[in-house]
Amino acid sequence: MNRRHLLIAGAGGVAAVAAGGGLAWRHTVGSTGAYERYSAELRAPLPNDPPVLDLVRTATLAASGHNTQPWRFRLTPGTIELLPDLTRATPVVDPVDHHLFVSLGCAAETLAIAGAATGRPGEFSTAPEGSLRYSFAPAPPRPDPLFAAIARRQSTRTLYDGRPVPNEALARLQQAGTREGVRCVLLTERPRLDQLRDLTLAGNEAQMRDPAFLAELKHWLRFNPASAMRHGDGLYAAANDSPPLPDWLGPRAFDLFVTPAAENEKYARQIDSSPGIAIFFADQADRAHWIEVGRACQRFALAATAQGLKLACLNQAVEVARLRPELAALAGEPGLRPDMVMRFGYGPTLPFAPRRPVAEVLA
């Protein structure tokens, strides 16, 4: 949702709430200042040798589809188990839990970077069902420029300024997004970006005409600071460059004004403003490889953040299965299943997405 959609939709309802005064409005949608304090606490810096619970808090800052945070952590001496939380699956947009296990990989990579940088380096082992075990031991901290980017990384779903990314920065992104079993393809030529835009719009059109997709998406929308803090998850309006609306008004605005045509216009403008797109492919389509894709995506996102870049997922042509072969051919990887698509560029800093407290993610 963008600002124009929700401002138009909310005009009448906002006027009614505003008539009750500023206190009524704050009570309805919450305070931006309170949300900023909440967000800052979640992203508090880690000292060397931090408590294990602080490592978990940092791991939860990883990216996840719809910001569902589909993970649980089990702590034992010298180990942190990272478990998939299938109660947070999104079966319409992600029927085989692909995004869920990619998200788990994002959390795993964040944990590994934070652990090594603060004196608890370790190694991961992966079980066939997709759970991971991080085994660590005390050691001198290992400086890593990606560590400082963990708290600053965000999904920036708005327009970028179109400036090209220097070749040396592109090379660092390519390196960060490539690991054993995972390849990262960067598109920067405008004709290929235009082709990807067209595929994205075709996927978006299909999704926006699917009532089940829309119902699932709405379940994860958080229209105001109070709702975002109360739930601690989901797609927060301000983090998507939209103004706050009361809970009773937001879903109505969505139904009335978030249309296939309006969303296609928004995504077309966003892609046209982006100087580059990354497409990730795993060698095989299974949970272990999807986790590795997540680890590669998270390193890519942190490397982009460390270089002053913004990024956002753009997965419509992955999620609509009939479009995957054309997307793979466009990236020069025919026969492989595309796993993730991210656009990147220079853009503004928006409010951060919410996170659940550590106590709620412990198994």
UniProtKB/TrEMBL annotation:
This is Nitroreductase family protein. Pfam families: Nitroreductase (PF00881). It comes from the Bacteria. Residues 150-346 form the Nitroreductase domain. It comes from Ancylobacter rudongensis. InterPro entries: Nitroreductase, Nitroreductase-like, Nitroreductase/BluB. PANTHER family: NAD(P)H NITROREDUCTASE RV3131-RELATED, NADPH NITROREDUCTASE. One of its GO terms (molecular function) is oxidoreductase activity.
